[in-house]
Structure formats: structure tokens, C-alpha cells
Specification:
Shape: globular
Order of helices and strands: HHEEHHEHHHEEHEEHHEEEHHHHHE
Helix content: 40-55%
Strand order of the largest sheet: 7-6-10-9-8-11
CATH topology of the largest domain: Beta-Lactamase
Number of helices: 15
Largest sheet: 6 strands, mixed
CATH class of the largest domain: Alpha Beta
CATH superfamily of the largest domain: Transcription factor LuxR-like, autoinducer-binding domain
Structural class: alpha+beta
Distance between the termini: 40 Å
CATH architecture of the largest domain: 2-Layer Sandwich
Number of domains: 3
Length: 361
């Protein structure tokens, strides 16, 4: 971060601004691929979803490629050296061809001969977005001429946590739109717990399950156009509510409340989901953390202080601190709030909402 210029940071912010408000995944992909060359100069920018089981994937490239290039990618795409490196390590940070293979090995690939060489591509840099184990989501820049610089890797690593969050925001908006359409048709039959809160803090829509959750939080039956319970109002007013969930209920029946990111003039959409007290170690290891780092991160997710994490793992606080610093580096963040938000966004709703902010009555 210290080696980046103000202009580099501004370029990252410009990319974040382009992708952050995407209404669905298609819009996110288009916005991201269109914005990437403004961050890192390249001949081609691409978004790839590559199933490792050989089933058809998804590829979006700008500028468009000829059909023969797409066919070559379908046949030989899994030979990509950066993709193979990610399969082995699950390290989604920015890597170049030159970081993971030799020139001799690269030009010997069928993928190079049938796709990269005809397109004039000699160099590539890519980051990965977290995905299920049998899927790789790659954000890729390719060009001829000179290799990508360390500056290019640095800005991509700085932008990566924001790409992850924007992806999950778009995914959740897409999911919420589907849920609300179902609610409009079936309401209580859908079974999702969703509430809409206007800028004055009034509940303007709530499914039956959400009304039950709101009433439990308020300790009283929810009236029409009632204001949200105080515990929710305080959370919504806080700076972290866009990133971190609120955990209600008790240890036997935790309930996580997530605030769906919205534009300034839009009402807040709240999703109520059965919560857990943390994220599994397996999911955290899927982000590129070692088993020990995953154990430490579980403590961070639960909001435990360093001495308590150290005591639970029978290691020294200094060792915990070193693990946390390495975790920050791998996730591309600078503090615990960023680490928790990135981990939660990365694993998505499959882990349900981990502890982030506890309700205080």
C-alpha cells in the first residue's frame, strides 16, 4: 500500500464506484470487465467462471473475441497456469504468468498455441473471487508487449476485497428481488424473512416471519408502520451495518439480521436468517488460509480478543498477532472489521451469518 501513488488509490476507488451498485450478477460482470482497464492497462479484460468438473462455464471478455477463441478456451482453458496455481493453493491474490510458470512451459501449452499466441497475448495477471470448491471465478487482464508490474498486482490486491463485496451485494440484490417477487405472489407461503425499512425507520413491508422476528426484538407485537425496535435502529445507524450482521436471539436460537446494501435514496432491506456463532474452518481454508490461520480467524469472527484466542488454541498472544497479520495480508484488509466483513462476504450465505455485532438491550 505504501508504494502506491494517490492516482493508483483513486483508480481503485473509481473501479469500486463502477461495480458497487450493480443490481444483479450480470450487471456486476459487465461493469467489472468494463472498468478493469482503467485500473490496469491491458488489451483484454475478462471475467471467467470455470467449473472444474468439465461442465460449461461462463466467460465475458472485452473487447469481444472471435468464436474460435471461445472454442479454444472451452477446450484448453483448464491449462491456464494461474488457474492451475489457484487450484493447488486457493490463494486468490493477484498473480502473473511470470509468477507461476516459465516462458518455455507457457508456450508449450495447447492453450497458448490455440488462443494466446493468435490473439497476441504474452502476459496475464488475474485475481480469484471466492467460490464453491468445484468452481473458479477469475478476474483476468491480458496483453502483449511488456509484463504486468508489481504496481498492477498491488492495485488488484487492494481492489479484490471490494470486488468480493460487490459480487455478494449483486448476488444478494438478485436473490432479494426473486424473494420479493415470490412474496408478492405468495407472501407467507414463501417462508423467507424479509423486511423493508424506510429512511425514517418505519417498517413499510415485512413478511410474516420477519414480523415475528421484529416483534421478538421489540418485545411487543409489531403495529402497522411501526418503527423498527431500538436495537435495530442503533445498528442501522452504525457505520458497520452495511458490512456486518446483527446477531439477535440466544445461543440456542441465534438470528442474524443482514442489511442489504442500498443506494442513498432507497429503503433498507433487512434479511433475517438463522445464525451461527461462526464460520467453519473448511470455508475459511477455502479463502487460502492455513488450518491454524483458519482457527485464529474463527476466533476473530466470534469477536474474541487476542488473549482469549491464544488461550483457546494454547499458543502465545504474539503468535496469534502474527497469524492475524498474515490473515490481513491474504484477505487484503487492514483491520479485524475488514477481515470479518471480507470473510463473511467471501463465504456468502452458505455459512449463514457469523457473529459480528451483538445486540445490546
Amino acid at each position: 500500500m505504501s508504494s502506491l501513488r494517490t492516482a493508483d488509490v483513486r483508480a481503485v476507488l473509481d473501479l469500486v464506484g463502477e461495480v458497487h451498485h450493480a443490481d444483479d450478477l450480470d450487471e456486476f460482470r459487465e461493469a467489472l470487465v468494463g472498468a478493469l482497464p482503467g485500473l490496469v492497462p491491458a488489451d483484454y479484460s475478462a471475467y471467467n467462471e470455470v467449473p472444474l468438473d468439465g461442465s460449461p462455464g461462463l466467460t465475458l471478455v472485452r473487447p469481444d473475441l472471435p468464436e474460435a477463441a471461445h472454442e479454444a478456451w472451452e477446450r484448453h482453458g483448464t491449462q491456464n497456469p494461474i488457474l492451475r496455481y489457484y487450484e493447488r493453493t486457493r490463494d486468490g491474490r493477484a498473480y502473473r504468468f511470470s509468477d507461476v510458470t516459465t516462458r518455455q512451459q507457457l508456450v508449450a501449452l495447447d492453450l497458448y498455441k490455440s488462443l494466446y499466441e493468435p490473439m497476441g497475448i504474452a502476459h496475464q495477471v488475474a485475481v480469484a473471487l471466492p467460490a464453491p470448491p468445484q468452481l473458479v471465478i477469475g478476474v483476468v487482464l491480458s496483453r502483449g508487449g511488456t509484463d504486468f508490474r508489481e504496481r498492477d498486482r498491488a492495485v488488484l490486491n487492494l481492489a479484490r476485497p471490494h470486488m468480493i463485496q460487490a459480487y455478494r451485494n449483486a448476488e444478494l440484490r438478485e436473490r432479494t428481488r426473486t424473494v420479493l417477487a415470490g412474496l408478492a405472489r405468495h407472501l407467507d407461503d414463501v417462508g423467507e424473512s424479509v423486511a423493508v425499512v424506510d429512511r425514517f425507520g418505519e417498517v413499510v413491508f415485512a413478511s410474516a416471519a420477519a414480523r415475528e422476528a421484529l416483534a421478538a426484538a421489540a418485545g411487543a407485537e409489531l403495529r402497522e408502520r411501526a418503527r423498527v425496535p431500538e436495537v435495530l435502529a442503533r445498528w442501522l445507524a452504525g457505520e458497520d451495518s452495511a458490512q456486518l450482521p446483527l446477531l439477535l436471539g440466544d445461543a440456542t436460537r441465534p438470528l442474524a439480521v443482514r442489511r442489504l446494501p442500498a443506494r442513498r435514496d432507497e429503503p433498507d432491506v433487512l434479511l433475517f436468517e438463522p445464525g451461527t456463532r461462526g464460520i467453519s474452518a473448511a470455508l475459511l481454508e477455502g479463502l487460502g488460509l492455513t488450518p491454524r490461520e483458519a482457527q485464529v480467524m474463527q476466533g476473530v469472527v466470534r469477536g474474541l480478543p487476542t488473549p482469549e484466542i491464544a488461550a483457546q488454541l494454547d499458543i502465545s498472544p504474539r503468535t496469534v498477532h502474527k497469524h492475524v497479520e498474515r490473515i490481513f495480508g491474504k484477505l487484503g484488509v487492514h483491520d479485524r472489521v475488514g477481515a470479518v466483513a471480507t470473510a463473511w462476504a467471501a463465504v456468502g450465505t452458505s455459512a449463514r451469518a457469523p457473529r459480528a455485532v451483538h445486540a445490546r438491550r
